[in-house]
Amino acid sequence: MLTVDFSRFPLAPGDRVLDLGCGGGRHAFECYKRGAQVVALDRNGEEIREVAKWFAAMKEAGEAPAGATATAMEGDALNLPFPDASFDVVIISEVMEHIPDDKGVLAEMVRVLKPGGRIAVTVPRYGPEKVCWALSDAYHEVEGGHIRIYKAHELLARMREAGLRPYGSHHAHALHSPYWWLKCAFGVDNDKALPVRAYHKLLVWDIMKKPLATRVAERALNPVMGKSFVAYATKPHLPAVAAGSAGAAGADAP
């Protein structure tokens, strides 16, 4: 289940991609299939080992084109182990709401992104997330849980402050909002409640079968109750004058 819409976020074969806070690796796998040179990074070593196994299985099955590469590694989002301007594309999906220093994470992403590169940021949407918080303290008051709820304009403002230039946004996963409302209402850890089990079965069926009726329904509902807010941005190139000045300064340096 992808949150980033690759029709709005173009990816070319050979692009160097960082999936930051990759979790189970869903976006990293899609980028690998599209011929990218992917680095999937997460602080959770167990998930990284699982992602590495899936990368190996995909390679063995011939699911990635020639030239595509994939690496899974542990790392800290606030201290990325990469030089400046290392990546053409950075994806961070459903991660920033967990991190106290979200400005620091944005600064690191901008640092490792090449000028002209693209970034996709996804976070829980304000309205559906607010309902979850109202229904259940256990939903967010856990170690590593959500520590903030972003309004769309707040996230876009943070991205601009970090030096990015947003160019598009949308909402995704409307059908998942009621599922989480049910989870919060019946108990976040209570998977046996009949409404929760029934709705989960519906979601699994939808993900596996992709029927036209639910696809149309979700597209119609996304602007109203989409679970995720997705923002796309670019890192501007240095102005020609500034770039020239920087080069001259370097040439004059002892």
TrEMBL record:
The record ties this protein, via SUPFAM superfamilies, to:
S-adenosyl-L-methionine-dependent methyltransferases
Molecular function (GO) terms for this protein are: methyltransferase activity
Q: Where is the Methyltransferase type domain?
A: 18-120
- Which EC class is the enzyme in? transferase
Q: What is its EC number?
A: 2.1.-.-
Which Gene3D superfamilies does the annotation name?
A: Vaccinia Virus protein VP39
Gene Ontology biological process terms, A to Z:
methylation
What keywords are assigned to this protein?
Answer: Methyltransferase, Transferase
Q: What is the name listed in the Swiss-Prot or TrEMBL entry for this protein?
A: Class I SAM-dependent methyltransferase
